[in-house]
Amino acid sequence: MKILVTGAAGRLGSKLLTVLAASGHEVIGADIVGDNVSRLDIGDFEATRDFVDNLRPDAIIHPAAWTDVDGCAKDPEKAIAINGFGTQHVALAAANIGASVLYISSNEVFDGIAGRAYREYDITNPINPYGYSKWVGERSLVNINPKHYIVRTAWLFAHGGKNFIQAILNAAQAGKRLRVVSDEIGNPTYNDDLAEAISKLIITGRYGIYHFVNEGACSRYEFARYFLNKAGFKDTPAEKISAAEWPRASLPPAYASMTNLAGKHIGITLRPWQEAVDDFLAKEGLTQ
Ligand SMILES: NC(=O)c1ccc[n+]([C@@H]2O[C@H](COP(=O)([O-])OP(=O)(O)OC[C@H]3O[C@@H](n4cnc5c(N)ncnc54)[C@H](OP(=O)(O)O)[C@@H]3O)[C@@H](O)[C@H]2O)c1
Predict the structure, then answer these.
(1) DSSP-derived secondary structure for 95-115
(2) CA separation (Å) from 79 to 50, 137, 201?
């Protein structure tokens, strides 16, 4: 297949370029900035339509987004412009040439009050501007292009760039006091596993909503304790705090873990998060 990847300089986008090329696809990466990718601002409708029209891909995988969750809370209009209407532009451009779209969405489209893991067709109800903007992206795609996959994911950790694991390990290394939220529940998800799952899904034509997260849920604290122990910081204390004690611009959904029913139905599953973390740490040379 000929596949366009938006946000190709980002964490997931750049991994997708490698994984899809290794599967034999013709892959073109585009981003607003970045090396070795074409320039494309998905916030610009005409530019997006013309780019897609010239390229004529069979499918567009669309992870491009403004992913600064707290930034989105401070500037909700910008969040909608990129994450919501940017996705509308991609959906229209793809529909114009008959291409499918695989959109990367988030567990933050849920309100986190169900007290159980969310399934793919549960009612969405975002409670912060980032979640709302990703939800607008979902709705736009569903309304415009019937050939769509919506892949919701959560708590990504990736090699390179910013991630929760490196931030906590760096703080532990520096001897800083560790305080980690214990009442926010989610699914830690390895960027590499997600890219592999997406590469399996894009060739199926089984359009719909998917929850691609590593199996199992935990609190931020349990996640941190797990990789601290594995990385040689077993004796380093970490204090459990509530989300209220970690003030931030965006209010995260409290219990927004998800379950992967739709992927399992077609044979696409992700391993337990603990195995994925072990693999990540080993590849980073961080296992003690
Ligand atoms: N990271 C997570 O924990 C997480 C959790 C759930 C869902 N997701 C979703 O997963 C997807 C991939 O996340 P990620 O962690 O790979 O994010 P990322 O590293 O921030 O990658 C997103 C890329 O999109 C680019 N971009 C921003 N505005 C753009 C525009 N107007 N036109 C074209 N490209 C633009 C970004 O450029 P700049 O860096 O210059 O802004 C960046 O290169 C996103 O859709 C995100 O919402 C992520």
Answers:
(1) HHHT-EEEEEEEGGGS-S-SS
(2) 23, 10, 27
Residue with tokens 């694991």: 165
Q: Are strands 185-186 and 218-219 parallel, antiparallel or unpaired?
A: antiparallel
Q: CA-CA distance, 117 to 138, in Å (whole number)?
A: 20
CA-64 nearest atom, ligand 1: 24
285 CA from centroid of ligand 1 (Å): 26
Judged against a pLDDT cut of 90, whether residue 34 lies above it is answered with no
- 48 Cα to the center of ligand 1, angstroms: 17
Q: How far is CA 119 from CA 29, 110, 211, 223, in A?
A: 31, 10, 8, 22
Q: How far does residue 288's CA lie from ligand 1's centre (Å)?
A: 32
**pTM score, two decimals?**
0.97
- Candidate of 28, 35, 46, 67 to mutate for ligand 1, largest count of ligand atoms within 8 Å of Cβ: 67
- Residue of minimum CA distance from atom 42 in ligand 1: 10
In whole angstroms, what is the distance from residue 118 CA to residue 124 CA?
9
**126 C-beta closer than 6 A to ligand 1:** no
List the domains of the chain with CATH numbers.
2-162+188-216+257-271 (3.40.50.720)
Q: Which of 130, 190, 221, 255 is catalytic?
A: 130
Active site residue 130: yes
Can you tell me which residue has the tokens 């520096």? 174
pLDDT band at 5 (very low <50, low <70, confident <90, very high): very high
Q: How confident is the model at residue 163 (pLDDT cuts 50, 70, 90)?
A: confident
| Arithmetic mean of pLDDT, 97-107 | 98
